[in-house]
């Protein structure tokens, strides 16, 4: 008898377990929530039993749901391994993957993705191009790196872009800072402050590019540091204000080390993309690296939205 179960059903339940909600599972799988719910409903009607408890967060799977998840864990690993092997046989799997990053906080999420990639593609020589590079795409075009992690897409560059995720950027203040009493900050609130940033050009700082620049605001003082923890120490001691991704400071906020406020009524968001040469886009391991990075980050970083 033919089975109703398909690979997509197994991926759906695994994503639901890994992300903890229908909404996030649908986003990770690039499905609408209604399409994902329909898949689950079809399975439940077929087996005549619910697969998980709808009201529990995260979802609590039933015995039937757990059994299908056991199948998913075993089968999906074999499917992914077989697909990688076929790609190796068909296009070759050897090569090197040198990564250059534009942002100082990228290492927090990049390292777990690289570890997972090494497990799947051990024959690929994987490395990070050391040092800060104001024009990472130039290294890709000069064949000094295969992938650049950048914040914006530039249509004039002769590279392919692979979207990763969007994230919220928050203003960070000392807990007793007067601005901590406000619901959100606007450009004018930075005018008489010391703005603490990484030592990068202003066009690479979202707070300057998206907020302060368009408003014609220049903070009273500027200070830079290369270390995120040093930046947070300066903020906590009242030496200035900073803006960082929410996922980079979540742990410090939970410990009450500093206070975070949205920038603007609707909040300030940033994006990250992978840029590579068109020839690199055609390599089978590059597509897998993009997928691994997106999925790893979506499961582990708070509040991000896949692009």
Describe this structure in words.
- By secondary structure, this protein is of the alpha/beta class.
- It has helices spanning 7-19, 22-28, 33-47, 63-91, 107-120, 136-141, 206-215, 228-236, 246-254, 278-281, 284-300, and strands spanning 52-53, 60-61, 95-101, 124-128, 147-150, 160-173, 194-197, 221-224, 241-245, 259-262, 268-276, 305-306.
- The strands form two sheets. Strands 3, 4, 5, 6, 7, 8, 9, 10, 11 and 12 form a ten-stranded mixed β-sheet that branches. It has a two-stranded antiparallel ribbon with strand order 1-2.
- Helix 1 (7-19) crosses helix 4 and helix 5 crosses helix 11.
Helix/strand/pairing class, anyone?
alpha/beta
Shape: globular
Would you identify the regions where 5 or more consecutive residues have pLDDT less than 50? Answer: none
Q: Helicity level, as a percent range?
A: 40-55%
Put simply, the count of helices is 11
The Cα radius of gyration reads 22 Å
Content of β-strand: 15-25%
Task: Please summarize the sheet with the most strands.
Answer: 10 strands, mixed
Give the topology string: H per helix, E per strand.
Answer: HHHEEHEHEHEEEHEHEHEEHHE
Cα distance spanning the termini: 40 Å
Could you tell me the mean pLDDT? 90
Please provide the count of β strands: 12
What's the quaternary structure here?
single chain
């Amino acid at each position: 008898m033919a089975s109703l179960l398909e690979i997509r059903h197994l991926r759906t339940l695994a994503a639901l377990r890994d992300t903890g909600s229908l909404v996030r599972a649908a986003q990770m799988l690039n499905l609408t929530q209604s399409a994902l719910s329909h898949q689950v409903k079809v399975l439940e009607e077929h087996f005549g039993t619910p697969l998980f408890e709808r009201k529990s967060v995260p979802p609590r799977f039933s015995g039937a749901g757990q059994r299908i998840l056991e199948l998913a864990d075993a089968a999906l690993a074999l499917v992914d391994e077989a697909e990688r092997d076929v790609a190796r046989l068909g296009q070759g799997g050897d090569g090197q993957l040198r990564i250059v990053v534009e942002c100082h906080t990228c290492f927090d999420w990049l390292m777990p993705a690289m570890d997972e990639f090494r497990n799947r593609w051990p024959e690929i020589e994987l490395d990070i191009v050391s040092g800060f590079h104001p024009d990472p795409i130039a290294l890709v075009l000069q064949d000094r790196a295969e992938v650049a992690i950048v914040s914006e897409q530039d249509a004039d560059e002769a590279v392919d872009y692979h979207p990763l995720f969007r994230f919220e950027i928050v203003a960070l203040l000392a807990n007793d800072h007067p601005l901590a009493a406000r619901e959100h900050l606007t450009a004018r609130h930075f005018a008489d402050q010391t703005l603490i940033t990484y030592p990068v050009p202003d066009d690479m700082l979202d707070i300057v590019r998206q907020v302060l620049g368009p408003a014609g605001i220049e903070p009273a003082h500027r200070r830079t540091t290369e270390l995120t923890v040093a930046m947070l120490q300066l903020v906590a001691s009242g030496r200035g204000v900073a803006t960082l991704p929410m996922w980079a400071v979540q742990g410090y906020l939970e410990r009450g080390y500093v206070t975070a406020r949205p920038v603007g009524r609707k909040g300030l968001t940033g994006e990250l993309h992978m840029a590579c040469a068109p020839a690199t886009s055609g390599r089978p391991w590059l597509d897998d690296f993009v997928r691994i990075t997106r999925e790893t980050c979506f499961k582990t970083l708070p509040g991000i939205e896949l692009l």
